[in-house]
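We modelled each protein-ligand pair independently. The example shown here corresponds to the zinc ion entry; the chain sequence is given first, followed by the ligand as SMILES.
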Amino acid sequence: MLLRKLAENWRIYLIIFLALLALAIWSVYFKEPDNNLHIFVLDVGQGDAELIQKGNYQILIDGGPDDSVISQLGKVMPVEDREIEEMILTHPHADHVTGLVDILSRYKIDKIVYSGVDYSSNVYQNFQSAIKEKNIPVSEPKKGETEKVFDQGTITYLWPSNNANVYKENLNNTSEVFRFDYGNFTGLFTGDCEVVCWQQIINQNRNLISNIIFLKVSHHGSNTGSDENNIPIIWPKIAAISCGVGNKYGFPHKETLDQLQKTGSDIYRTDLLGTIDISTDGKNWSVNN
Ligand SMILES: [Zn+2]
């Protein structure tokens, strides 16, 4: 009797099964963002690219060394969203700017932040030409300038000073460094800031870089970006290092890892874990990878 009933209703069961399957596929491919703010340290190999995202609002910091950032963004941004509200270039080295040129041709970018430092590489010239061609508003923030972002977020620009060209002998020291506040959550984005840049920030704004929850470790974990002078001040709870598997520079350097271990930071590396996802509601936070 039961078997006969099951046999009679097979079409209904098939429809239910297909509907559930479609729902499962939909939820995987059309993942809608949750209500939290996310910082993604994107897996772009030997370079830097981070995305701060809440809902359909994004701030992209650097684009990595090639177009791999496109597929990484595809994995974390809502599929229908082709607009990035703000793009920040920390400095014009190829491992930071190259992917941004590809993004400029595929996404609508509302605003660009960079230091405007002079540098004559082809890829940087292409970046600047694309901005002009698309008529995208550009801002070169002054040290100490703040910007309201998201519903309860603030960016405070800490570096470079008014004219980045003073430091262009070592472009890493022209990196845009900024603090990001979201509720009680704090982050520090550092580009490839090295000793000269850190010295100035520590002298002028030590309190703004103290006791930070999330640190994008400077210069891919190089010992020229992290040392006993800056890590004990920052004292990060989460330290994210963006570097390529088996990179030729030996990043991250042992000295950097030792410093971070001394402060008790949880260390996350893109070469070991791929993309790192830090999620926060402004009070609590968690790391997923
Ligand atoms: Zn770099």
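The first helix runs from residue 2 to 8.
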